[in-house]
TrEMBL record:
InterPro entries xref list: DNA-bd_dom_put_sf (IPR009061), MerR-type_HTH_dom (IPR000551), MerR_fam (IPR047057)
Taxon lineage: Bacteria, Pseudomonadati, Pseudomonadota, Gammaproteobacteria, Steroidobacterales
PROSITE patterns noted in UniProt: HTH_MERR_2 (PS50937)
UniProt-listed Pfam families: MerR_1 (PF13411)
Name of this protein: MerR family transcriptional regulator
Keyword vocabulary terms for this entry: DNA-binding
Domain HTH merR-type: 18-88
Domain of life, per lineage: Bacteria
């Protein structure tokens, strides 16, 4: 879904447990109102809601949002097509998400290595 080339233009995902909608907006290159709309359109996207209906996204949510962004903006899918693609073969989706997590960890480890070499 997200190839390494597309991933490089987005910032690395910090090692936090929860992210606000503003942080996710910056991490994924998508405006907050678009994220709220996508919550209605994609059942896979379920951020935790706390006091005052504030949304808190987890790392998995950020990866799903990046997948949706890639499908819609880079691969040209419609909302319905992207929904079908994400909901289709769950085993393949799990593999793709695992690959994305491995890529993200690799980027973060390379950054740590670069800092340690200074």
């Amino acid at each position: 879904m997200l190839e390494a080339g597309n991933n490089s233009e987005l910032p690395a995902i910090p090692g936090k447990r929860y992210f606000t909608i503003g942080e996710v907006s910056e991490l994924c290159g998508v405006k907050p109102h678009v994220l709220r709309y996508w919550e209605q359109e994609f059942p896979q996207l379920k951020p935790v809601k706390r006091r005052g209906n504030r949304r808190y996204y987890q790392r998995q949510d950020v990866l799903v949002i990046r997948q949706i962004r890639s499908l819609l903006y880079e691969q040209g899918f419609t909302i319905g097509g992207a929904r079908n693609r994400l909901g289709g073969d769950e085993a393949r989706d799990d593999l793709t998400q695992a690959q994305q997590i491995v890529r993200q960890i690799r980027v973060e480890l390379e950054e740590v290595l670069r800092i340690l070499r200074r």
